[in-house]
Amino acid sequence: MIEAVGLTKRYGAKTAVYNLSFQVRPGAVTGFLGPNGSGKSTTMRMILGLDAPSDGHVTVNGLPYRRLPNAPRQVGALLDAKAIHGGRSAYNHLLCLAQLSGIPRRRVDEVLGVVGLHEVARKRSKGFSLGMGQRLGIAAALLGDPQVLLFDEPVNGLDPEGIRWIRTLMKRLAAEGRTVFVSSHLMSEMALTADHLIVIGRGQLLADMSVKDFIAHNSADFARVRTPDGEPEQREKLTAALGEAGAAVLPEQDGTLRVTGLPLPRISDLAHGAGVRLWELSPHTASLEEAYMRMTQGAVDYRSTEDQRAGLLGPAGQGQPNPYAAPPGAVPGAAGGAAGWPPPHGAAPAHPYAPPAPGGPGQPNPYAVPPQNPQASPQAPSQAQPQGWQPPPAAPQVPQQAAAPAAPAAPPAPAPADLTKRDNEDAR
């Protein structure tokens, strides 16, 4: 059992927890609820001896945590799933914890099987996903087979199968007579898992009761009544009859009536007496989320506001232009539009850097085969030339002027052999 008496914690001028008293009894799953900044994590740290209370005290099985003999064998906790050396494997991490607490080695394999990490037991934890890290943290909490268990956001990062598994696990642990204390922001999970609730706001206790009583104290049940559509006179007749009987009737936007102050059988009798046919008569019970929001609406410190988008909307209420949209007017037939944009349905858009089609408008293709010399002998068109290519017209012939008389030709140069013969004659 966990018992807090007058628990208070101050950090300088800020009071995180003030005069908090409660009991967490064995045999039930106790949910610990509260808005962000309400002091839930600080309270759990004080239970585990990680923070010293400024005033008051908290005990586990009658003793402060630091005075418990071999505390890991009596209390298991998951506060931060990332509090693990990333270079260690899942197996070695649990083995170190087991050896520090005198827990047999075989227990490491048992808890790895419980949380479903057998296949990755030898892998380093730094490569684990958020959900796998949560499973490893839960395995560390179960390692000593403790009678008291504390979980802070245990379903964070788990997939639907994992959420269902941890829900079943906590219920089973409580059914074995253990003390299970769970902090969570998921109201739907708390409604399915918790038997008892402790709700705090701004460090102070707001509620300490069962889930059923909490919903009943913080919500108003009502009956939903629907009369035939298209017959407003019947709805008006029923509204008058219910009002005379002392009920409060509130019309809904969908045409139904919200009725409070009368049980369903009495509403049915009044409708029958007034000759009104009913298409729907159903009870409505508030959910845990609705009851929680109603209780804690005055203890929320961080509230969101509407996004006004100041300066982001144009004068006509339009947002910033799409930088990837086609330019304005680029629609066939539009004024100033580029013809052929957007391309027809099923046709690929033209490549922006492709050369223009043969024979089409635009600059000449710089990579086309140059035209052949018109004075050369005609040849067959090249395969690289586009179909329909015609050589340009030949340039007009310029009449040649009369050639000047040719100068006398120079004597031919002597051959190398003649030069040698001439040199020999000169030498003689």
Automatic annotation (TrEMBL):
The Gene Ontology terms for molecular function here are:
ATP binding; ATP hydrolysis activity
UniProt domain ABC transporter: residue ranges: 2-227
CDD domains reported in the protein's UniProt record: ABC_BcrA_bacitracin_resist
Bias (Pro residues) ranges: 341-373
Among Pfam families, the record links this protein to: ABC_tran
* Comp. bias regions, Low complexity: 374-388, 397-407
Task: Please note every region of biased composition (Basic and acidic residues).
Answer: 419-428
- Keywords for this protein: ATP-binding, Nucleotide-binding, Transport
Q: Where is this region: Disordered?
A: 310-428
What's the family? Belongs to the ABC transporter superfamily.
Protein name, UniProt field = ABC transporter ATP-binding protein
